[in-house]
Design brief:
GO molecular function: dCTP diphosphatase activity; magnesium ion binding
Order of helices and strands: HHHHHH
Largest sheet: none
Subunit structure: Homotetramer.
Number of domains: 3
Radius of gyration: 21 Å
Bound molecules: 2'-deoxycytidine-5'-triphosphate
Number of helices: 6
Mean pLDDT: 86
CATH architecture of the largest domain: Orthogonal Bundle
Organism: Klebsormidium nitens
GO cellular component, one term: cytosol
Distance between the termini: 69 Å
Shape: extended
Number of strands: 0
Cofactor: Mg(2+)
Length: about 160
């Protein structure tokens, strides 16, 4: 049984055309990329939306959702980590937009025949070779020293 079928067996309503998406705090957690891929594929199939899920359409939908995500940060200035001051509804909205981006990305990879998990792991490996720890730690120290010198300079 594939991962998506297993997911649907645990929670059949997750992909039913008549019902909403899985509720929060659901038994599918923690979820894998493969399970999300299967759930997204079933979502589209159930609605006869496969015809619209072409690579180009999905890419445009993905970019649209990245735009919606960007709007949440627009005009706020720098936003510290942990998003202090953001209200629960704002945080929920952020989660929704991030999810839209992820779901379209997973679907795009699927219809393009790319194993996203494998590709991401390969890319992590490549990144690690391109940016060796020692070289980067050295340069971030240099960067901190540079920032301190700049701050000192702006005081005088
Ligand atoms: N043809 C479609 C339409 C929607 N979805 C899914 C993927 C996204 O997770 C979500 C996007 O739905 P909407 O287009 O309604 O966009 P939003 O949820 O962002 O709504 P809104 O634009 O009103 O904020 O639904 C999909 O897979 N395929």
């Amino acid at each position: 049984m594939d991962q998506g079928a297993a997911a649907r067996e645990i929670l059949p309503e997750a992909t039913s055309p008549q019902t909403a998406a899985p509720p929060a705090g659901d038994p599918l957690l923690p979820v894998t990329l493969g399970e999300l891929q299967e759930l997204q594929a079933s979502f589209a199939k159930d609605r006869d939306w496969d015809q619209f899920h072409s690579p180009r359409n999905l890419l445009l939908a993905l970019v649209g959702e990245v735009g919606e995500l960007s709007e949440l940060f627009q005009w706020r200035g720098e936003v510290p980590r942990g998003l202090p001051g953001w209200t629960p509804p704002e945080r929920e909205h952020l989660g929704e937009e991030l999810a839209d981006v992820l779901l379209y990305l997973v679907r795009l990879a699927d219809v393009c025949g790319v194993d996203l998990g494998r590709a991401a792991l390969r890319k992590l490996e490549k990144n690690a070779q391109k940016y060796p720890v020692d070289a980067c730690r050295g340069s971030s120290q240099k960067y901190t020293a540079y920032q301190e010198a700049e701050a000192e300079g702006s005081k005088s």
